[in-house]
TrEMBL record:
InterPro entries associated with the record: AAA+_ATPase (IPR003593), ABC_transporter-like_ATP-bd (IPR003439), ABC_transpr_CbiO/EcfA_su (IPR015856), ECF_ABC_transporter_ATP-bd (IPR050095), P-loop_NTPase (IPR027417)
GO molecular function annotations of the record: ATP binding
Protein name: ABC transporter ATP-binding protein
Native species: Clostridium rhizosphaerae
SUPFAM superfamilies listed in its UniProt record: P-loop containing nucleoside triphosphate hydrolases (SSF52540)
PROSITE patterns, sorted: ABC_TRANSPORTER_2
Any matching Pfam family: ABC_tran
Length: 268
């Protein structure tokens, strides 16, 4: 099982300002969204998971490997991170070279890396762009290239930082299906994201991070039922959830289709 264990994690960039305060979490097979306002510590947290940063105190174990005892390069075989801004991730002059870089860097032979690259580009719908310069493409396509770069590495754990940035409806649906396929393959998928509707439609577990601490952690439906607690973190439930709450329904509905099915079951 792909597992992450976080034990009493503390982190600060400056001694006078603690960013993360005593976080303890176990990540299992459930797809997990980490939500919270800017400054809550989300990006810092996933950088620590990837060993791009080191804890001030506490431990993070990735499949029993303590991040204090390894490097981001060595962890790359186990955990992949799609950056929020694709411009921070992309550096090659051809799409194919960009997507093949990761697989080659973790030791895949060239033939296998090519096959994995082509598969990933087909998954994101950019196979016809493999010889183009990524910076000749739009931001939404560059985001998909950065996703393909991590898919091609075939890691057991994948973290998406704001996966829906610059995506229209079709782009979001494509990414949603990619995530669901990864989950079906037994991979642990984690995201940090501001899109509450996307979380409701895609992720089983939701963690609310507020001011460096865990405010809520549980099944996504349960977390979104606590509108009063979410307000403390300056968050709102998905639009459908809010609408149904205002209409007086006690149940927590996560999607429009879910609510429609419920109404059909009542015969009205």
């Amino acid at each position: 099982m792909n597992k992450i264990s976080v034990r009493d994690l503390h982190f600060s960039y400056k001694d006078s300002e603690e960013i993360l305060r005593g976080i303890s979490l176990e990540f299992d097979e459930r797809s997990t969204a980490i939500i919270g306002q800017n400054g809550a510590g989300k990006t810092t947290f996933v950088k620590l998971l990837k060993a791009l940063l080191r804890p001030v105190s506490g431990d993070i174990l990735i499949n029993s490997i303590n991040t204090k005892d390894t490097t981001a390069a060595k962890l790359a075989k186990h955990i992949g991170l799609v950056f929020q801004n694709p411009n921070d991730q992309i550096f090659k002059n051809k799409v194919i070279d960009e997507v093949m870089f990761g697989p080659l860097n973790i030791g895949m032979d060239k033939d296998k890396a090519r096959i994995s690259c082509e598969y990933a580009l087909k998954e994101v719908g950019l196979f016809d762009k493999l010889n183009e310069n990524p910076y000749d493409l739009g931001l939404s396509e560059r985001k998909l290239i950065s996703i393909a770069s991590i898919l091609a590495m075939d890691t057991d754990i994948i973290i998406f930082d704001e996966p829906t940035i610059a995506q229209d409806y079709l782009g979001k649906e494509k990414i949603k299906q990619i995530i669901k396929k990864l989950i079906a393959q037994g991979k642990l998928v984690i995201t940090i994201i501001h899109d509450m509707d996307f979380v409701a439609e895609t992720f089983e577990r939701t963690i609310v991070l507020n001011d460096g601490s865990i405010l809520l952690d549980g099944n996504t439906r349960e977390v979104y039922s606590h509108a009063d607690v979410l307000r403390k973190a300056y968050l709102e439930p998905p639009h459908v959830t809010q609408l149904c709450q205002k209409l007086g329904f006690e149940d927590t509905f996560l999607t429009a289709s879910e609510f429609i099915e419920y109404k059909k079951s009542l015969g009205n």
